[in-house]
Amino acid sequence: MKRTLFLLTINLFGLIAFSQNTNLFKTEEITGDLYQSNIGKVTFMDGNIPLNQYKKSDFLTSFNLVYKSNLNIRFFLNNSITNYLHELAPNLSAEELVEKGNLQFSFYIDNKPIYKENINSGCNFGYGNSKDTSVIFRIPLTSSKDENLWALHMWDRFKLNGGGEALTNGTHNLRIEIRPYIITNTEALVGNLVAKGQIKLIIKTPKVTAKQIEIQPILPNSEWEISNFQFDRKKIEMLNKEIASYDLKEITSVVAIYDGKLLIEEYFNDASRNTLHDTRSTGKSFASTFIGIAINDGYIKNENQRLSSFYNLGDYANYNAKKDSITIKDLLTMSSSFDGSDAHSESPGNEENMYPTDNWVKFTLNLAIDPSKTNGGKWDYFTAGTILLGDILDRNIPDGLEKYADEKLFKPLNITNYKWQYTPQKVPNTAGSLQMTSLDYAKYAQLYKNNGIWNNKQVIPQAWVEKTLTKQIQIPERDNQFYCYLFWNKTVNYKGKNYETYYCAGNGGNQFIIFKDLPLVIIITSKAFNKPYGHPQADKIVHDYLLPAILK
After folding, report:
1. pTM exceeds cut of 0.85
2. pLDDT by residue (tens digit) across 257-289?
3. Model confidence over 362-418: pLDDT tens digits?
4. Which tens digit of pLDDT belongs to each residue from 212-252?
5. Distance between alpha carbon 135 and the CA centroid of its chain, in Å?
6. Cα separation of 448 and 459, whole Å?
7. What pLDDT was estimated at residue 30?
8. Interior CA angle at 145 toward 143 and 148, to 5°?
9. If you count Cβ atoms within 10 Å of the first and of the last residue's Cβ in the chain, which end, N or C, has fewer?
10. Secondary structure string (H, E, C) spanning 49-67
11. Which residues, other chains included, contact 138 with Cβ-Cβ below 8 Å and sequence gap of 6+?
12. Mean per-residue pLDDT for 35-40?
C-alpha cells in the first residue's frame, strides 16, 4: 500500500490536526510560538521534558556532564524527514526514501569536527513521531538508566571516536549539526544543514582516592598458587585509576594468570571474588568443550556428524536437503547455511527472534536455508546454532547435559559455585550466560593453556584442544581475525611484536584470553552490555596496561 503524507498543523499546547495534501511532499504548515522561534535549532535539556511543558527557560546553555546523567536534545525542523529526503532523491517513493535515508549527526568539540554518523534508516524517534509528518524530535544523548537506545549508542560511538579524548577536564563547547542523507544506488547524498545547536559541557573527573588506585592484595584461599613474578605495579595502578574515574566503564574484574599462578586479581564496581558474573556469550565456548568430551566418550561420533543423524528434519518447516548436510563443525564454526545472522536485525534467524518463542530448538530447525550460503563456507554469527549443540548433547548423553557438565568439567576443576541459564525446555543454555566467579573462569581458560590437563588429569582430550585452538574460518571484514570451535583468534601487536591469542568473548566486553606464546591467561569481566565501547576497552586494558605491566 502506498503511503501518503499529510499537511500538519501543530498547536504545541493543543491538538495536532491533519489534513490530506494532494502534493505528497508539500512543506508542512505549522503554528506555535515555541516552534516558530526555534526552527532549525537543536536545543538541550536535562532529562525528557514533555513537549507540552517545554519552554524556553528549560533550554540549557551549560551542563555538568558526569558519568550518570540525562542530557537530551530536542530539535525543530522546517520540514519532515521524508520531505528532506525527497529533495535529495525526488524520483524515489516514500517507502524507498525512509528505507534508504535518515538524518546525519555531526559532533564538534570547541569548533573541531570530531564524529559524524548517518544513523541507520531504521532508527526512529519515539512514540508518536513520524518521519513523514513530524518536525519536532527528541533523543537522549546520555541516560542514568540502563537503556538500550540507538541515540545513546551514537553518543557512545562519538565518545569512542575522539569525543572522550576531546572532553578533558574543564569547559568545552559541544556543537551538533543535523543534515538529511540518503544512500542511492551510486552514492551517498547529504543535504543542507537543517538544525544546529550548541552547549557548554563542564567536565570534572571524579575524585579518585589512593585506596581505589592501589593494587588489591590477593587474599588467601584462592586455590591458586600466588605468583612472585615482578610486574610493573604502576601500570596496574594506572589501570585502577582509569576504572575508578569511569574512563573505563562497568569493568567488574581483571585477573591475570602468569605461568599457571595467580598474578593479578582486581575487582571493581561492587564485585568481589565471590561474584557470579554474567559474561554472556563466553558461555558458548563451553558448548565446544562438552562436544569434545562427548566425542571422546563416544556419545557423538565426531564433529563431522550431520544434523540428519540427530533430527528428522522433514518434520520441521522449510525442509531443504541442505539442512541434512549441516554438521556439528558447521555449528561450531558458525558457518552453517541456516538463514540466521545475529549481525542483521532483519534476519529471520536473529537471536532476538528466538528468545520470545517457547521452543528454541524448533525455532532453529524451522528456519529456511539461505541460498547464498554453503555449509562451512562463510562465517556469520549465529547464536541459535549453539542451542542445537546443547540440545544434541542433552539428547545423547545419559542423564542429560547438566549432570554431565558437572561430572566431566566442573568437579575436576573444583568449580562448585556456578549458575546456568536454561532454555524453555529446561536444558542448559549453551548460547551463553553461564555465570561463575572470575577465578573459576580463569581455571577454565588455563585448562586450555594446559592442553586440557588439570591436576595431572586429562579433562579435555588434547586432540580436541588442539582442534579448538586452530584457525578454522576467516571472519569477514576483520583483518587477520579468525573463528575456531566457538573460540575467537586474533593477534595483538605490542611494541612491534605480534602475540597470537585465542579467546572467549561475550557482550559487554567480557573476555577470557589465552596467549599462545606467552605463559599468560587474562580474564576481564564487564557489564557494559550492548555498549560499543565494551570490547574496545577490554582490548585497551590488555594493550595499554596488562602487557606493559608484564612485558615491561
Report:
1. yes
2. 999 999 999 999 999 999 999 999 999 999 999
3. 999 999 999 999 999 999 999 999 999 999 999 999 999 999 999 999 999 999 999
4. 999 999 999 999 999 999 999 999 999 999 999 999 999 99
5. 32
6. 10
7. 63
8. 80
9. N
10. CCHHHCCHHHCCCEEEECC
11. 48, 51, 72, 73, 74, 125, 126
12. 95
CA atoms of 65 and 201, how far apart (whole Å) = 6
Q: Give residue for cell 520540514.
A: 79
Half-sphere exposure for 237 (CA within 13 Å, toward CB): 9
Per the DSSP assignment, residues forming a β-bridge with 188 are: 183
Instruction: Please report which confidence band the pLDDT of residue 13 belongs to, taking 50, 70 and 90 as the band edges.
Output: very low
Are 142 and 159 spatial neighbours (Cβ–Cβ below 8 Å)?
A: no
Tell me how far apart the alpha carbons of residues 54 and 46 are, in angstroms, rounded to a whole number: 11
Distance between CA 502 and CA 190 in Å, rounded?
Answer: 42
Q: Using the predicted structure, report yes or no on whether residue 185 has a pLDDT greater than 90.
A: no
Task: Show contacts of 298-303: CB within 8 Å, 24+ apart.
Answer: 299/393, 299/396, 299/397, 300/328, 300/392, 300/393, 300/396, 302/328, 303/327, 303/328, 303/329, 303/332, 303/467, 303/485
Cα–Cα dist 399/393, whole Å: 10
Q: Concatenated DSSP letters for 392-454?
A: HHHHHSTTHHHHHHIIIIITTTT----B--B-TTS-B-TTS--BB-HHHHHHHHHHHHTTTEE
Distance in angstroms (rounded) separating the CA atoms of residues 344 and 280: 19
Q: Which residue, among 231, 237, 250, has the nearest Cα to 208 in the 3D structure?
A: 237
Residue 96, SS3? helix
Backbone angles phi, psi at 283, to 5 degrees: -65, -20
Residues 496, 502, 506, 511, CA torsion sign? negative
Q: Are 303 and 295 in contact (CB under 8 A)?
A: yes
| Euclidean distance between CA atoms 167 and 41, whole angstroms | 23
Residue with cell 573505563: 248
Cell of residue 496, nine digits = 612491534
Task: Decide if 195 contacts 178 (C-beta within 8 A).
Answer: yes
With beta carbons less than 8 A apart as the criterion, state whether 258 and 519 touch.
yes
Q: Which of 540, 498, 381, 521 is nearest to 442 (CA)?
A: 521
Q: How many helices (H) and strands (E) does the chain have?
A: 18, 21
**The pLDDT of residue 20:** 35
Residue 206 corresponds to which cell in the numbers above?
571524579
What value does the mean pLDDT of the chain take? 93
Instruction: Render the burial of 383-412: b for 16+ CB within 10 Å, e for the rest.
Output: bbbbbbbbbbbbebbeeebbebbeebbbeb
Which tens digits make up the pLDDT trace of 133-150? 899 999 999 999 989 999
Beta strands (DSSP E) in 77-169 are: 101-109, 112-118, 136-140
SS3 content of the chain, % helix, strand, coil (to 5): 30, 25, 45
CA 391/CA 434 separation, integer angstroms: 16
pLDDT at 22: 32
Q: Which 3 state secondary structure label does DSSP give 21?
A: coil
Identify the residue whose cell numbers are 549432570: 403
Residue 7 has pLDDT above 50, yes or no: no
